[in-house]
Design a protein that fits this description.
five-stranded antiparallel β-sheet, globular, alpha+beta, Sig_transdc_resp-reg_C-effctor, WH-like_DNA-bd_sf, Tscrpt_reg_LuxR_C, Arc Repressor Mutant, subunit A, LuxR family transcriptional regulator, 10 helices, Beta-Lactamase, 239 residues, single chain
Protein backbone atom coordinates (compact mmCIF):
# COMPACT_ATOMS: atom_id res chain seq x y z
CA UNK A 1 0.00 0.00 0.00
CA UNK A 2 1.05 3.64 -0.39
CA UNK A 3 4.11 5.04 1.35
CA UNK A 4 3.81 8.73 0.43
CA UNK A 5 1.08 10.88 -1.10
CA UNK A 6 1.40 14.46 -2.39
CA UNK A 7 -2.00 15.60 -1.14
CA UNK A 8 -1.51 19.28 -2.02
CA UNK A 9 -0.95 18.37 -5.68
CA UNK A 10 -4.06 16.18 -5.71
CA UNK A 11 -6.22 18.91 -4.16
CA UNK A 12 -4.99 21.52 -6.66
CA UNK A 13 -5.92 19.21 -9.55
CA UNK A 14 -9.31 18.58 -7.94
CA UNK A 15 -9.95 22.31 -7.50
CA UNK A 16 -9.43 22.77 -11.24
CA UNK A 17 -11.86 19.99 -12.23
CA UNK A 18 -14.78 21.29 -14.28
CA UNK A 19 -16.96 18.19 -14.65
CA UNK A 20 -17.94 15.06 -12.74
CA UNK A 21 -16.10 13.06 -15.39
CA UNK A 22 -12.87 14.82 -14.40
CA UNK A 23 -13.57 14.07 -10.74
CA UNK A 24 -14.09 10.40 -11.67
CA UNK A 25 -10.69 10.36 -13.37
CA UNK A 26 -9.06 11.96 -10.32
CA UNK A 27 -10.66 9.38 -8.01
CA UNK A 28 -9.24 6.56 -10.12
CA UNK A 29 -5.76 8.09 -9.99
CA UNK A 30 -5.96 8.64 -6.24
CA UNK A 31 -7.09 5.03 -5.78
CA UNK A 32 -3.96 3.92 -7.61
CA UNK A 33 -1.72 6.27 -5.61
CA UNK A 34 -3.08 4.93 -2.32
CA UNK A 35 -2.68 1.40 -3.70
CA UNK A 36 -6.11 0.36 -2.45
CA UNK A 37 -8.95 -1.43 -4.19
CA UNK A 38 -11.68 1.20 -4.25
CA UNK A 39 -12.70 4.80 -3.66
CA UNK A 40 -16.36 5.77 -3.92
CA UNK A 41 -18.25 9.06 -3.52
CA UNK A 42 -22.07 8.97 -3.37
CA UNK A 43 -24.15 12.14 -3.13
CA UNK A 44 -27.85 12.84 -2.58
CA UNK A 45 -28.65 16.47 -3.35
CA UNK A 46 -31.31 18.75 -1.87
CA UNK A 47 -33.86 17.64 -4.51
CA UNK A 48 -33.29 13.94 -3.77
CA UNK A 49 -31.32 13.30 -6.95
CA UNK A 50 -28.42 10.87 -6.57
CA UNK A 51 -25.13 10.70 -8.36
CA UNK A 52 -21.58 9.69 -7.65
CA UNK A 53 -18.12 8.69 -8.75
CA UNK A 54 -16.15 5.61 -7.90
CA UNK A 55 -14.26 2.51 -8.82
CA UNK A 56 -16.70 -0.29 -7.95
CA UNK A 57 -17.41 -2.57 -10.90
CA UNK A 58 -20.47 -1.86 -13.03
CA UNK A 59 -21.64 -5.36 -12.14
CA UNK A 60 -21.62 -4.57 -8.41
CA UNK A 61 -23.33 -1.20 -8.89
CA UNK A 62 -26.09 -2.88 -10.91
CA UNK A 63 -26.40 -5.67 -8.35
CA UNK A 64 -26.56 -3.16 -5.48
CA UNK A 65 -29.43 -1.29 -7.12
CA UNK A 66 -31.35 -4.42 -8.18
CA UNK A 67 -31.19 -5.94 -4.69
CA UNK A 68 -32.21 -2.69 -2.98
CA UNK A 69 -29.13 -2.83 -0.77
CA UNK A 70 -29.42 0.88 -0.02
CA UNK A 71 -32.02 -0.07 2.61
CA UNK A 72 -29.89 -2.72 4.34
CA UNK A 73 -26.30 -1.64 3.72
CA UNK A 74 -24.78 -1.24 7.24
CA UNK A 75 -22.35 1.37 5.90
CA UNK A 76 -25.16 3.65 4.71
CA UNK A 77 -27.46 3.10 7.70
CA UNK A 78 -24.58 3.34 10.18
CA UNK A 79 -23.04 6.48 8.70
CA UNK A 80 -26.38 8.22 8.35
CA UNK A 81 -26.57 8.18 12.16
CA UNK A 82 -23.04 9.53 12.61
CA UNK A 83 -21.08 12.70 11.94
CA UNK A 84 -17.54 11.33 12.22
CA UNK A 85 -15.54 8.92 10.02
CA UNK A 86 -16.29 5.25 10.62
CA UNK A 87 -14.18 2.14 10.21
CA UNK A 88 -16.45 -0.61 8.90
CA UNK A 89 -15.40 -2.93 11.73
CA UNK A 90 -17.25 -0.62 14.15
CA UNK A 91 -20.57 -1.04 12.34
CA UNK A 92 -23.27 -3.59 13.16
CA UNK A 93 -22.90 -6.63 10.88
CA UNK A 94 -24.82 -9.01 13.15
CA UNK A 95 -28.16 -9.16 11.31
CA UNK A 96 -28.91 -11.74 8.63
CA UNK A 97 -29.50 -8.97 6.07
CA UNK A 98 -26.13 -7.39 6.86
CA UNK A 99 -24.30 -10.71 6.56
CA UNK A 100 -26.02 -11.46 3.25
CA UNK A 101 -25.02 -8.05 1.96
CA UNK A 102 -21.42 -8.50 3.13
CA UNK A 103 -21.08 -11.92 1.49
CA UNK A 104 -22.36 -10.51 -1.78
CA UNK A 105 -20.09 -7.45 -1.56
CA UNK A 106 -17.03 -9.63 -0.95
CA UNK A 107 -17.89 -11.78 -3.97
CA UNK A 108 -17.94 -8.62 -6.08
CA UNK A 109 -14.53 -7.41 -4.90
CA UNK A 110 -15.59 -4.60 -2.60
CA UNK A 111 -12.99 -5.58 0.01
CA UNK A 112 -13.16 -6.76 3.60
CA UNK A 113 -11.91 -3.45 5.04
CA UNK A 114 -13.49 -0.02 4.70
CA UNK A 115 -13.43 3.53 6.02
CA UNK A 116 -16.35 5.89 5.32
CA UNK A 117 -16.82 9.60 5.91
CA UNK A 118 -20.40 10.95 6.19
CA UNK A 119 -20.85 14.53 5.00
CA UNK A 120 -23.90 16.76 5.32
CA UNK A 121 -24.70 19.85 3.29
CA UNK A 122 -26.57 23.02 4.29
CA UNK A 123 -29.88 22.09 2.61
CA UNK A 124 -30.39 18.45 3.55
CA UNK A 125 -27.75 16.97 1.27
CA UNK A 126 -26.02 13.78 2.40
CA UNK A 127 -22.91 12.21 1.00
CA UNK A 128 -20.57 9.32 1.74
CA UNK A 129 -16.92 9.12 0.81
CA UNK A 130 -15.52 5.61 1.17
CA UNK A 131 -12.22 3.83 0.71
CA UNK A 132 -12.05 0.03 0.80
CA UNK A 133 -9.47 -2.69 0.42
CA UNK A 134 -8.88 -6.40 0.92
CA UNK A 135 -6.21 -6.97 3.58
CA UNK A 136 -5.70 -8.08 7.19
CA UNK A 137 -6.70 -5.94 10.17
CA UNK A 138 -3.16 -4.94 11.11
CA UNK A 139 -2.33 -3.68 7.62
CA UNK A 140 -5.57 -1.69 7.43
CA UNK A 141 -5.04 -0.17 10.87
CA UNK A 142 -1.59 1.07 9.88
CA UNK A 143 -2.96 2.51 6.64
CA UNK A 144 -5.85 4.38 8.28
CA UNK A 145 -3.62 5.69 11.06
CA UNK A 146 -1.27 7.14 8.47
CA UNK A 147 -3.75 8.44 5.91
CA UNK A 148 -7.09 9.06 7.67
CA UNK A 149 -6.55 12.83 7.80
CA UNK A 150 -5.63 12.95 4.12
CA UNK A 151 -8.72 10.91 3.26
CA UNK A 152 -10.99 13.19 5.32
CA UNK A 153 -9.63 16.30 3.63
CA UNK A 154 -9.95 14.69 0.20
CA UNK A 155 -13.55 13.72 0.99
CA UNK A 156 -14.50 17.29 1.81
CA UNK A 157 -12.76 18.69 -1.28
CA UNK A 158 -14.65 16.25 -3.51
CA UNK A 159 -17.89 17.04 -1.72
CA UNK A 160 -17.34 20.77 -2.19
CA UNK A 161 -16.79 20.15 -5.89
CA UNK A 162 -19.98 18.04 -6.06
CA UNK A 163 -21.98 20.89 -4.51
CA UNK A 164 -20.75 23.13 -7.33
CA UNK A 165 -22.11 20.61 -9.84
CA UNK A 166 -25.54 20.30 -8.19
CA UNK A 167 -28.24 21.09 -10.79
CA UNK A 168 -30.14 24.36 -10.31
CA UNK A 169 -27.98 25.26 -7.35
CA UNK A 170 -28.16 28.90 -6.28
CA UNK A 171 -24.69 30.14 -5.42
CA UNK A 172 -24.16 31.35 -1.87
CA UNK A 173 -23.75 35.12 -1.89
CA UNK A 174 -21.67 35.03 1.29
CA UNK A 175 -19.28 32.30 0.15
CA UNK A 176 -16.23 34.45 0.82
CA UNK A 177 -13.88 32.19 2.77
CA UNK A 178 -10.66 31.16 1.06
CA UNK A 179 -10.08 27.44 0.37
CA UNK A 180 -7.55 27.24 3.24
CA UNK A 181 -9.97 29.02 5.62
CA UNK A 182 -12.66 26.51 4.65
CA UNK A 183 -10.28 23.61 5.29
CA UNK A 184 -9.29 24.96 8.70
CA UNK A 185 -12.85 25.68 9.84
CA UNK A 186 -14.10 22.31 8.57
CA UNK A 187 -11.51 20.35 10.52
CA UNK A 188 -12.11 22.43 13.65
CA UNK A 189 -15.85 21.78 13.28
CA UNK A 190 -15.11 18.04 13.13
CA UNK A 191 -13.40 18.18 16.51
CA UNK A 192 -9.75 18.39 15.49
CA UNK A 193 -7.44 20.28 17.86
CA UNK A 194 -5.52 23.23 16.48
CA UNK A 195 -2.32 21.19 16.52
CA UNK A 196 -4.04 18.39 14.54
CA UNK A 197 -5.46 20.87 12.03
CA UNK A 198 -2.05 22.45 11.50
CA UNK A 199 -0.46 19.03 11.02
CA UNK A 200 -3.17 17.89 8.60
CA UNK A 201 -2.86 21.04 6.48
CA UNK A 202 0.96 21.00 6.72
CA UNK A 203 1.09 24.53 8.11
CA UNK A 204 2.36 26.08 11.33
CA UNK A 205 -0.01 26.84 14.20
CA UNK A 206 0.85 30.52 13.68
CA UNK A 207 -0.39 30.32 10.07
CA UNK A 208 -3.48 28.47 11.24
CA UNK A 209 -4.24 31.29 13.68
CA UNK A 210 -4.06 33.74 10.77
CA UNK A 211 -6.63 31.69 8.82
CA UNK A 212 -8.92 31.44 11.85
CA UNK A 213 -8.74 35.16 12.64
CA UNK A 214 -9.40 36.00 8.98
CA UNK A 215 -12.43 33.68 8.91
CA UNK A 216 -13.76 35.18 12.17
CA UNK A 217 -13.48 38.68 10.71
CA UNK A 218 -15.23 37.74 7.45
CA UNK A 219 -18.03 35.99 9.34
CA UNK A 220 -18.40 38.73 11.96
CA UNK A 221 -17.88 36.15 14.69
CA UNK A 222 -16.95 36.79 18.31
CA UNK A 223 -14.88 33.62 18.71
CA UNK A 224 -13.92 30.43 16.88
CA UNK A 225 -17.02 28.50 17.99
CA UNK A 226 -19.23 31.35 16.79
CA UNK A 227 -17.37 31.39 13.46
CA UNK A 228 -17.86 27.66 12.98
CA UNK A 229 -21.58 27.96 13.72
CA UNK A 230 -21.97 30.81 11.23
CA UNK A 231 -19.95 29.00 8.56
CA UNK A 232 -22.14 25.90 8.89
CA UNK A 233 -25.41 27.86 8.91
CA UNK A 234 -24.39 29.71 5.74
CA UNK A 235 -23.35 26.54 3.98
CA UNK A 236 -19.70 27.61 3.77
CA UNK A 237 -18.54 24.37 5.36
CA UNK A 238 -20.20 20.96 5.63
CA UNK A 239 -19.57 18.41 8.36
Amino acid sequence: MANRINLDKILKILEAAGTLEEVQSIIEKVRDLFEIDHIVYHWVDSAGEQYGCGTYSDEWVKRYIEQGYLRTDPVVTGCYQRFHPVDWKRLDWSTKAARTFLDDALKHGVGNQGYSIPIRGPNGQFALFTISHNCDDATWEKFTEKYSRDVILLAHYINRKAIDFEPNRTPEGSRNLSPREVDAMTLLAMGYSRAEVAETLSISEHTLRVYIESAKTKLGAQNTTHAIARAISRGLIVV
